[in-house]
Structure formats: structure tokens, C-alpha cells
Amino acid sequence: MREKLRSAWGLYLYFFKIGWFTFGGGWSIVAQMQTDFVEKKKVIDSQELLDIVSVGRSLPGTMIGNVAYLFGYHQCGVLGGVLAVLGIITPPLVILSIVTLFYHSFRDNVYVARALVGVRAVVAPVILSAVWKLQKAGSALPKPLFYGLMAVGCVLSFVFQISSVLVVLAGVAFGVGYHLMMRKKEAAEA
Amino acid sequence: MIVRILQLFWSFLQIGFTSFGGLSMIPLISSEMLGHGWMTSTEVSDIVAIAEMTPGPLGLNCATFAGIRVAGVAGALAANFGMLMPTFTICAAGAVFFEKFKNSSALKHVMTAVRPVCIGLIWAVIINLCLENYWVGGSVQPVSILIGLLGVYLLLKRKWSVPKVICVAAMLGVVFCR
User: Fold this and answer.
1) Structural domain total, chain A
2) Is the ipTM of this complex over 0.90?
3) Which pairs from A95-99 meet CB under 8 Å and 24+ separation?
4) Which residues in chain A touch residue B121, judged by CB atoms under 8 angstroms apart?
5) Which of A26, A67, A76, A105 has the fewest CB within 10 Å, making it most exposed?
6) How far is B151 from chain A (nearest CA, A)?
7) Same domain, residue pair A90 and A180
8) Shared domain check, A144 and A109
9) pLDDT in tens for each of the 178 residues of chain B?
10) Which residues contact A173 (CB under 8 A, 6 or more apart)?
């Protein structure tokens, strides 16, 4: 029990730390989780991280809350999930409270505006660094199929502006077909 | 006061359950805020801009802004909590399900197909962000592009951490961005 409390508290602290840098609609936490959990601590692999992101993104609610909960739950149950969520929302809560109180001076401050232009210029690279590593993680799918699905996902979302929930669901539908095919193949081999 | 706090909770609970993140929730946020008289329409567009720039997702940032305005810190907490209810209910149930069936061959196969689609989605996010930040109002932003390229170099070649890169970018922005 004590052990569990300690690791749940550790999750709070970790997500509190990365919460200050959740720019770009929360996608940048994926980059931070990739470096810290996949590369350094090795508690999950790239594929598990992608699973968490896919599930978290396609359920209702805020993505970072869902992603934090799923990871926290994976590490140490409900308590871990709840503390991870509280950790990740504390920094935005604090920052926005301050911004709200100084709303006018914040909105009209030139230096704040310039700093934020700088920050926004690196949000895409931050997310790119994550996707780059996730993409290299490998897959059971043959390469052309893997990149084909990737392109379809990208085009559906970017060109046709289809909501990401539906895009993920299309992936699930394809996955069900893939499963049936694989089961047939396994049955034929057996 | 308590009535207002409950109203905030209820409004953001609805926004939370019907939104799947990102800009899709703006119309609903806007109608809830204007309907209760919690914000003016200028404030809604300002807060959308501010919420996009500051860390944290749009929905939670709007929740904090409206919450503090309407009922102080308690209001902000109630609104945030409402916004997080889908996470504590649907996602919590999803987590149980997911951990339970993680090793079944069906879920493994489905996720094998979902992963590349999800990577494609992230690429779409990246393209959109590039268009928004390097191509503002129909003109190319050379300073932003240079900061972005530096970011790619620092992250991928020099293995800098995300917070460090973001702080450097903020400083470069103060010095070089107009």
C-alpha cells in the first residue's frame, strides 16, 4: 500500500513537471513521454505509448487528461490514474488563473506576445520529434501497408477534415478485418 | 455562489462529454459562455487565442478562465472538474477494459492497425501547426521557420529535452519576433 502511494505520488510529480509544457493541444506531452518513459525509464515501449495516445485521443474529454489517466492506471491503478490527471492539469490551472487576473496586461504585452510566437514556432518540431521516433518503432504490418494506413489517416484528417475520432474508428474497423484475416491464416497453418 | 459553481460544473461537464478535443469545442463553449453571460464574444475569441498559446488544452483553459471570472478559484476548480468528468468515467472504464484485454489476439491485431492511423493523425496535426505558425496571414514567417529548424536540430540531433527547447524558443521570440 505504501509502495503504491509512493509511486502514485511520483506520477503526480512527473505529470506536474511536464504539465508546464503542454503546448499544441497537448500533443507535446507525447514527445515528453516518449523521451522519458520509452527511452530513459523504459517502463513502456513505443507501441504501448501509441496505444495510449490512440485510445486517449478517441474518447471524449481532453486528450491530455485521458492520456495521463491511461498511463497512470497502467502504472498503478485508479489512484495512479487520478493523480496523474491532477498532476498534468495543475500547471495550466495555475498559469491560466494568473493570466485571467492580469488578462488585459497579458493580452496587450508585446514581450509576452513575442515569446509566444517563439514558442509556437517550436511546437510542430516538438511533436515531429515524437512522431519520428514512434514511426521507427516497427510494426507487425508489412511496410507498404503501414505507410499506406499512415497516409490514409493523415489525408482523412488534414485534407477531408474528418474528426480524429472517426479516423481512429476507421482504423479500428480495418483492424477487425485484419484480425479476421490473421485468424483464418493461423487456422490454415495449424 | 453555490448555484454559480454548480452551473459552471454542469456547463463544462456538457462541453467535456460532447467534445473530442481541439477546436471542435469552440462553438459549444461560445454558446455556453454567451448564454450565461459569463463572457462577451470578444472575450471568447481572446480566450481561444490565449488558450492556444499557453500550455494546457483549450477546454481546460477556458474552464479556468470562465471559472475564475464567475466564481473565483472554487469556480475554476468546479469547471475543470466538470471538463475532466469524461476522463474519470468513460476513460477510466476504457482503461480497465484495455488492460484486461491487452493480451488478447483480437485487441492486439486491432491496435496494430490503429497505430499507423494514429501516426497519420499526428502528421496532420503537425502540418496544420506548420501552416498556422509559419504562414501567418498569407505571408511566410522566416524568423519562425528558423526557430523551428533550430528546434528540430536541438531535439533530434542534440537530444535536448522539450522544456529546454521551449524555453530557448521563448527567449529567441522575445529577441527576434516582431
Assistant:
1) 2
2) no
3) A95/A20, A95/B54, A95/B55, A95/B56, A96/B51, A96/B54, A96/B56, A96/B60, A96/B61, A96/B64, A96/B65, A96/B68, A96/B76, A97/B64, A97/B68, A97/B73, A97/B76, A99/B50, A99/B54, A99/B65
4) 57, 153-154, 157, 164, 167-168
5) A105
6) 6
7) no
8) no
9) 889 999 999 999 998 888 765 666 778 888 888 898 888 888 888 777 777 777 888 889 889 988 998 899 999 999 999 999 999 999 999 999 998 998 898 999 999 999 999 999 989 989 988 988 898 878 899 999 999 999 999 999 999 988 999 999 999 999 988 7
10) none
Q: Do B166 and A23 touch (CB under 8 A)?
A: yes
Q: Which residues of A touch B169 (CB under 8 A)?
A: 118-119, 121-122
Q: Do A154 and A119 sit in the same domain of this protein?
A: no
Give the range of the structural domain holding residue A173, as residue numbers without chain letter.
139-190
- Cβ distance A63 to B161 less than 8 Å, yes or no, reads no
Nearest neighbour of B115 by CB, restricted to A35, A65, A139: A139
Do residues A147 and A189 both lie within one domain? yes
A50 and A87 both lie in a single domain: yes
The pTM (predicted TM-score) of the whole model is 0.89
